[in-house]
Amino acid sequence: METHQITGYIGAEISDVQVGNLDRDEIAAIKKAWLEHKILVFRDQNITREQHIAFGKYFGDLEVHPFAPSPENYPEIVEIVSNDKFQYAASNWHSDVTWRQEPSMGSILRGRSIPNVGGDTSFANAAEAYNRLNPDVKSRVDSLYAIHDFTKTFGKRMSPEERKSKQEEYPPARHPVIRTHPVTGERCIYTNRPFVTHIEGVDEDESRYLLGALESAILDPSIQCRIRWEINTIVMWDNRIVQHHASNDFYPKSRHVERVTIIGDRPF
Questions:
Q1: Does the pLDDT of residue 87 top 90, yes or no?
Q2: How large is the average pLDDT for residues 191-217?
Q3: How many helices (H) and strands (E) does the chain have?
Q4: Please, which residues have CB within 8 angstroms of residue 47's CB and are 6 or more apart in sequence?
């Protein structure tokens, strides 16, 4: 198994390993590389859905997404199909399921059907983005909390009755604006446009300004990497410290990817 760093601040490609057939030492090496590089890329992984699920379970229990579609008989897998009729491609910077009280630890995405051009995913190191914040902004956000709510995105597809029912089941979550990684201790930006409604304890203008400053920090290309998908490429990333953005530049062609999501803990 070999590790090839992608950029200076985030990402590595792992070669000479098959995720559907791992031994104990390989699993340990992948866990170590994941913490160090924050996202890992595996090419040419011709695995079954059962093996995809089994690979995810090496890192923790898997969640079942309450709003996203899944293939029949595979509730742990989120099926993301994007085309000219259904543009569902995560095209805003975010971490997955931050609207949960205990959001995802990590995601493992596999390419099933990939356009010959476009549909790349970019990833940003949210810890380095925090490190580079203007000192004034950093001092203002360090102790603040933000409210995360699924209705900003998934709620738009629901009837008023369904939305109300789901809000009772999944009420808004209150998370620190800057969270601490539970293993590495790194501090990182933990706000995003798709799910955060506002920052608590400041007025609307201040909330809007701070969220914009945090988003701008994530946009720095020097703390990012961009992954070109191929069929049977697998990318796994640490949602506690990474944000990602999928490119909507391939329509009317289609893109089909599948994800398993590892359950995390409450941000602090």
A1: no
A2: 97
A3: 6, 15
A4: 18, 19, 20, 55, 110, 232, 234
Give the pLDDT confidence score for residue 264 in this predicted structure.
98
pLDDT at 86 over 90: no
State the catalytic residue, choosing from 100, 187, 240, 259: 259
Are 161 and 168 within 8 A, CB to CB?
Answer: no
Respond yes or no: is residue 259 known to be catalytic: yes
For 241, the 3-state DSSP assignment is: coil
Contact 98, 175 (CB under 8 A): yes
CB 190 within 8 A of CB 180: no
Decide: helix, strand or coil at residue 251: coil
Is 96 tagged catalytic? yes
CB 223, CB 124: distance < 8 Å: yes
State the catalytic residue, choosing from 37, 94, 100, 148: 94
Question: Is residue 205 annotated as a catalytic residue, yes or no?
Answer: no
* pLDDT at res. 82: 86
Out of 100, 240, 244, 255, which one is annotated catalytic? 244
Query: Would the pLDDT of 133 be above 80?
Result: yes
Q: Side by side, which strands form the sheet with 196-199?
A: 173-176, 145-148, 196-199
This model's pTM is above 0.85: yes
Which residues are bridge partners to 256 per DSSP? 81, 113
